[in-house]
Design goal:
Bound molecules: 2-acetamido-2-deoxy-6-O-phosphono-alpha-D-glucopyranose, zinc ion
Distance between the termini: 41 Å
Shape: globular
Helix content: 25-40%
Structural class: alpha/beta
Number of helices: 17
Number of strands: 19
CATH architecture of one domain: 3-Layer(aba) Sandwich
Length: 513
């Protein structure tokens, strides 16, 4: 694989998922190398270690991708997304590097440190060499953690910047922190039963095996899709959430809790079988479970300010459930960084996308108030939830812990509310940038007149809700619809999809179910 970019190569853009694309068309090598340069320059600018993760998450195994992490484990800041884009598209790389060094006032004597990680894709190992080449070219060192989950990379990047000496930076730190937190919370419990984890044939199987071993006295963690099949193929959190069905290889039995992680283990969904029927507990449910627990334990008198951050994709029933309990909710644009940012406005910010990516952030004031009010149980939970980014395994342990603390079965959890029937469709149009949205993606402002027509369609069904937005990761427009019945929901989504197709230069066949 060449790590050089041929002049005139198609331009790429650093998006919500970093850079992502096919791993076999000769482009990913230079894209990852230049992301190494970006991560190194960012590190030199801040005088702190940054992270670089090579993964394409839930995408098929032939794809790959790369993301840069800020020192405390957050997503790359917006103006550097622009610099990453410029560095990656530059015909003259050295000139572009010089430009960034000048505009960002990076000292010529500074040296960076980039923490490097990769998933299990066959293309990932070679791409980590590409990254190293870029990191060195940008006058920095790299510390290669090898095969890790995305949240492990974020967590260890955070740890090194919080003072963990470089020689102590290893995965044992990650496993012991989360294992100890779980054991602390469940110290008075007996065995909590079985949970079966679909590892999507990805890196999750390594993390899953560690937790299974370290927690065997408390919970029986059984792993499926643990490397015997193709990555993300008919399995994983995205497959289960999108298809609302069990992954391949799972012979579901009543009375067992099931969950799926995605290809880099930053998303989680739960499910179980009841009377022969498949029942999904997605990111909205996880948020509602944790919020319910917090509200019960904090009680009326606590000064801790907490709330839930969702996107427009959150099922309306979950938002209504939270509002009925008097829990604050906020809606942001799609993409983890937007939710994360909004969650920081609360002492405790619970954020989850419906797809299962999310976490619970506790700020310093929350910790101080919890200490003062004597909430040791919630303080223990704060240690169990990965504070840097959504983490499928940390979230799984948090769900298990909260079910235990509430003395709830998975059935009790499922009974919180009933989802409104909903449907997600894709529409191909000539130029998806023609669709412009505002109000956390719930209102379409271009093409002119589309939103008015959409409103009229929504008004034709009971409990109707629908919105459209251009995907950030695929060349399509996504249409979401929700209504009181599955039939009305189908009727609404097909009508809105056709509206988009007709008003925004639809391509190919007219949308149908
Ligand atoms: C990316 C985002 C995810 C979002 C998805 C939406 C991050 C780390 N990931 O995977 O949060 O749900 O994009 O995809 O921000 P879409 O724009 O194609 O609908
Ligand atoms: Zn992922």
């Amino acid at each position: 694989m060449s790590f050089e970019r041929a002049p005139g190569t198609k331009q790429v853009k650093y998006g919500t998922a970093g850079f992502r694309g096919p791993a076999d068309d000769g482009q990913m090598g230079f894209i990852v190398k230049r992301s190494g340069i970006t991560a190194a320059l960012r590190s030199r600018k801040l005088g702190k270690a940054t992270g670089l993760m090579i993964t394409a998450s839930h995408n098929p195994v032939r794809d790959n991708g790369v993301k840069v992490t800020e020192p405390l484990g957050e997503m790359l800041v917006p103006n550097w997304e622009g610099l990453a884009t410029d560095l990656t598209n530059a015909d003259d790389l050295n000139a572009e590097i010089a430009k960034v060094i000048k505009s960002e006032e990076i000292s010529s004597s500074s040296e960076g440190l980039v923490i490097l990680g990769r998933d299990t894709r066959p293309s990932s190992a070679e791409l980590s060499f590409a990254a190293t080449e870029g990191i060195i070219q940008a006058q920095s060192r790299s510390l290669n953690l090898g095969v890790v989950t995305t949240p492990q990379l974020h967590y260890l990047t955070y740890k090194i910047n919080k003072g963990t000496p470089v020689f102590n930076l290893n995965l044992d730190l990650y496993y012991s922190d989360f294992t100890n937190a779980f054991l602390e919370i469940t110290k008075n419990s007996g065995n909590l039963g079985s949970v079966e984890v679909d590892c999507a044939n990805g890196v999750g199987l390594l993390a899953g095996a560690q937790f299974a071993k370290r927690l065997e006295s408390k919970v029986n963690i059984k792993l499926t899709n643990a490397g015997d099949g193709l990555l993300n193929h008919d399995c994983g959190a995205d497959f289960v959430k999108t298809g609302q069905r069990a992954p391949v290889g799972s012979e579901m039995k009543e009375g067992v809790r099931y969950c799926s992680v995605d290809g880099d283990a930053d998303r989680l969904v739960y499910y179980f079988l009841r009377a022969g029927k498949f029942f999904l507990l997605d990111g909205d449910r996880i948020a509602c479970l944790i919020a319910t627990y917090l509200q019960k334990r904090l009680g009326k008198d606590s000064s801790v300010n907490f709330g839930v951050v969702q996107t427009a994709y959150a099922n309306g029933a979950s938002t209504n459930y939270l509002s009925a309990l008097g829990i604050k909710t906020v809606c942001t644009k799609t993409g983890v960084k937007h939710l994360h940012h909004a969650a920081l406005d609360f002492d405790i910010g619970v954020y989850f996308e419906a797809n299962g990516h999310g976490t619970v952030l506790f700020n310093d004031s929350a910790i101080a108030k919890l200490e003062k009010e004597g909430h040791s149980e919630i303080l223990a939970l704060a240690k169990l939830v990965n504070q840097t980014v959504g983490d499928a395994f940390s979230d799984m342990l948090a769900v298990e812990a909260v079910l235990y603390l509430l003395n709830w079965s998975i059935e009790d959890w499922a009974a919180m509310y009933s989802d409104y029937p909903n449907r997600l469709m894709k529409v191909k149009i000539a130029n998806r940038a023609d669709i412009q949205v505002t109000n956390a993606e719930r209102t379409c402002i271009a093409p002119a007149g589309l939103q008015d027509k959409l409103n009229s369609l929504v008004a034709t069904v009971a409990n109707g809700r629908s919105f459209v937005r251009a995907s950030g990761t695929e060349d399509v427009v996504r249409v979401y619809a929700e209504a009181n019945t599955a039939e009305n929901c189908d009727k609404l989504s097909i009508a809105v999809a056709n509206l988009v197709f007709d008003m925004a230069d639809g391509q190919g066949d007219k949308p149908s179910l």
